[in-house]
Specification:
This protein is of the alpha/beta class. The protein is about 40% helix and about 15% strand. The protein contains 15 helices and 15 strands. The strands form 4 sheets. It has a 7-stranded mixed sheet with strand order 2-10-9-8-7-3-6, with helices on both faces. Strands 11-12-15-14 form a 4-stranded antiparallel sheet. A two-stranded parallel ribbon has the order 1-13. A hairpin with a 5-residue loop joins strand 11 and strand 12. The protein is globular and about 60 Å long. The N and C termini lie far apart (about 75 Å). It binds pyridoxal-5'-phosphate (PLP). The site of pyridoxal-5'-phosphate (PLP) has 14 residues, from helix 7. Belongs to the class-I pyridoxal-phosphate-dependent aminotransferase family. LL-diaminopimelate aminotransferase subfamily.
Length: about 450
């Protein structure tokens, strides 16, 4: 047996399993146990690969895994508790019928000679780029070739960072969607984390609080190369006015900065006076790129489909077009979005699909209105929830993680602590409207019961 073990160690995984399956001369089903026999080599491996030191600067892992950890701990402590999540902004309702059917057909087609397709264009199907342009951008002068279809907006935010070097300077809204900060940290753009200010030394935090109507005082913001701006905002739920966006575009133009405009929730804008895309602002085509997603439009968080618009007029300091480098990124490290997901996206932009998608958005908007009214009636300071699926609730003077813990303990409801989105999020929690209606109504009852008598 000892001898056999030694020889097994030098075999590859598959050979090892197969041999063990015929050990006693009979053909038997290969067993996994044989692989466990192989002991690790006696000598310790000495790695030469250095860790990217920027990873060490990332703070407390990613916000949502930490929330999940605390939720699990609470569930273990209270096994019978029915926890409701208003935490992570993940969709819960089924994908609308005509959109799901288009994906079913595309998937079935892949099993036929006529319907099969392999790699497609890395930039996305021409038909889908045309449809996106027609629905959302042709009225503001954008063209299909400027739209890059992808596997999601988060992935695009990560990928686009590769166009810039570590010496690029960055500004973010504070609070903001964590991916802008974390991807900038990984790229080495932010400098060190400072415990005192709870921020990164080289990052410009554009404070957005009730006092400034959640729009940064740009006179206090130093010029940077990149400006990440999310509108409607995750987490505050604020949607910028035309005048505010004009100010932002003027600021970016004056400083020669690139505005990375995240419009992942644009479809939630109900007020027709508010811009739906940054390209409604004249001059934005020379200073902005916009990323967006089907995730919160059509329940595609699991399907994965998004897009990024890079105008031909957007240039680097040396005059070269940003679109050329973005195209290089997409063709080099991305291989095109799933053809099945793209069939769904295309269906979502046809009249029937668009109607269904709008109904889905309206449903989540109603959830937001229900939550917002509840917090208002309970006397809290409440923001957002009117042009965005997030409600931002103020608990002045209280640390957000304490509020998070109190709500979890008293109501068995998961929220998101505002401080997880940046230093200016302290004292707030975010409630997401992406739940089932019965859960939203149940959550409302629990809030009323626990906070109604204060
Ligand atoms: C502001 C913002 N941008 C982008 C994304 C990511 O979208 P996707 O699912 O397309 O990666 C999210 C998801 O929550 C988001 O809140």
């Amino acid at each position: 047996m000892m001898k056999l073990n030694t020889s097994l160690q030098s075999l590859s995984h598959s050979k090892c399993c197969t041999l063990a399956g015929s050990l006693n001369g009979r053909r038997s089903k290969p067993s996994r146990i044989s692989c466990a026999i192989a002991a690790p080599p006696a000598e310790e491996v000495k790695m030469r690969v250095k860790r990217n030191e920027n990873f060490g600067k990332l703070q407390a892992g990613y916000l949502f895994p930490e929330i999940a950890r605390r939720r699990r701990a609470h569930q273990e402590k209270h096994p019978d508790a029915k926890i409701i999540s208003l935490g992570i902004g993940d969709t819960t309702e089924p994908i609308p019928k005509s959109i799901a059917e288009a994906m079913q057909q595309a998937a079935a087609g892949m099993a036929t000679l006529e319907g099969y397709s392999g790699y497609g264009a890395e930039q996305g199907k021409g038909e889908l780029r045309e449809a996106l342009c027609q629905r959302f951008y042709s009225h503001v002068g954008r063209k299909p070739n400027e739209i890059f279809v992808s596997d999601g907006s988060k992935c695009d935010i990560g990928r686009l960072q590769m166009m810039f070097g570590a010496d690029t300077t960055v500004a973010v809204q504070d609070p903001s969607y964590p991916v802008y900060v974390d991807s900038s940290v990984i790229m080495g753009m932010t400098g060190e984390y400072d415990e005192g200010s709870k921020g990164f030394g080289k990052l410009q935090y554009m404070v957005c609080r009730p006092e400034n109507d959640f729009f940064p005082d740009l006179s206090k913001v130093q010029a940077t190369d990149l400006i990440f701006f999310c509108n409607p905002n995750n987490p505050t739920g604020a949607a910028a006015t035309r005048k505010q966006l004009e100010e932002l575009v003027a600021f970016a133009r004056k400083n020669g900065a690139i505005l990375v405009y995240d419009a992942a929730y644009a479809i939630y804008i109900a007020d027709s006076d508010l811009p739906q895309t940054i390209f409604e602002i004249p001059g934005a085509e020379e200073c902005a790129m916009e990323t967006c997603s089907f995730s919160k439009y059509a329940g595609f968080t699991g399907v994965r489909l998004g897009w990024t618009v890079v105008p031909e007029q957007l240039k680097f300091a040396d005059g070269s077009p940003v679109i050329a480098d973005f195209n290089r990124i997409m063709t080099t490290i991305f291989n095109g979005a799933s053809v099945i997901a793209q069939a769904g996206g295309l269906a979502a932009l046809q009249d029937e699909g668009f109607r269904e998608m709008s109904d889905l958005v309206a449903f989540y908007r109603e959830n937001a209105a229900i939550l917002r009214k509840t917090f208002v009636d309970l006397g809290f300071s409440v923001y957002g929830g009117e042009n965005a699926p997030y409600i931002w609730v103020g608990f002045p003077g209280k640390p957000s993680w304490d509020v998070f813990a109190e709500i979890l303990e008293k109501c068995n409801i998961v929220t998101t602590p505002g401080s997880g989105f940046g230093p200016a999020g302290e004292g707030f929690v975010r409630a997401s409207a992406f739940g089932h209606r019965e859960d939203i109504l149940e959550a409302v009852e629990r809030f009323k019961k626990e906070f109604g008598k204060q």
